[in-house]
Specification:
two-stranded antiparallel sheet; 9-stranded parallel sheet; alpha/beta; single chain; 251 residues
């Protein structure tokens, strides 16, 4: 599994040390470290920048600047793929239209299946595209809730044959070992490192790293010490780990 760490990471001197030899996801909403990542990372993916706009209650009017950005960097040796534009709380029809308008084909683009959309749409995307990203949305926007786990289980049941997905799967904002170790993801991302290296109260004790670069290396190494599940075994087999003694029924 590939672990994509979100940027920007500040200060930039820390970012260059933390990200050397790793994998990055650079958001179009915060692209300032694109050159650094292309230079020092093994591979780089592009986020379309929808999430921060959605959190702020804003809408993206035109996707042409994003297309131009992908086109500008798309032939770089470190570039891997880019998320196709999406509306996090949009309708299936709205998001289908954005996928249809994608100008770069399936080699470059990765569509997003939103958890509030139908399982039928997920199956079609996985049948048509080599990689599909899972985005938490609607009533399943909060990762890790009971409702979210049930929905993810329903999705995995639909697109896994003998536990193996019919296409590569990416978990958006799911680079938490407690989450990605349960699913057969090919990749996942989060801004965990960028957000947590600056929280001083979380770092104490005699062996705590003395600077943000050291903190970031520790966090990234910790995350990358874990791999995704080799196959989907169902939520029932994991219920004691996820929910204590509670019995989970997925029918």
């Amino acid at each position: 599994m590939i672990h994509y760490h979100g940027t920007p990471i500040t200060p930039e001197t820390a970012a260059s040390r933390i990200m050397a030899g790793r994998h990055a996801m650079v958001s179009y909403a915060n692209p300032q470290q694109i050159d650094l990542c292309l230079e020092c990372c093994q591979s780089v993916t592009f986020d379309n920048g929808t999430f921060p706009k959605w959190k702020a209650g804003e809408k993206i009017i035109s996707w042409e600047p994003y297309y131009e950005w992908v086109n500008l960097y798309g032939n770089h040796p470190a570039f891997d793929w880019a998320l196709i534009p999406d509306l996090i709380d949009g309708t299936e029809e709205e998001n289908d239209a954005l996928i249809e308008n994608w100008p770069f084909g399936d080699y470059v683009g990765v569509p997003v299946w939103h958890l509030h959309e139908s399982i039928g749409k997920l199956y079609k995307l996985c049948s048509d595209w080599p990689r599909v990203a899972f985005g938490s949305s609607g009533e399943y926007a909060n990762i890790g809730t009971h409702r979210w786990w049930y929905r993810m289980a329903e999705a995995m049941d639909a697109v896994c044959v003998d536990g193996v997905p019919i296409s590569k799967l990416h978990g958006l904002r799911m680079l938490d070992p407690y989450v990605f170790t349960r699913f057969p993801f090919s990749s996942a991302d989060s801004t965990n490192v960028a957000r947590n290296i600056g929280i001083d109260r979380a770092w104490n004790g005699s062996y705590s790293p003395t600077n943000k670069a050291g903190r970031g290396v520790v966090l990234a190494d910790r995350i990358e010490a874990f791999n995704s599940a080799p196959r989907w075994t169902g939520l029932q087999t994991q219920s004691s780990l996820l929910f204590g003694s509670e019995i989970i029924h997925t029918t």
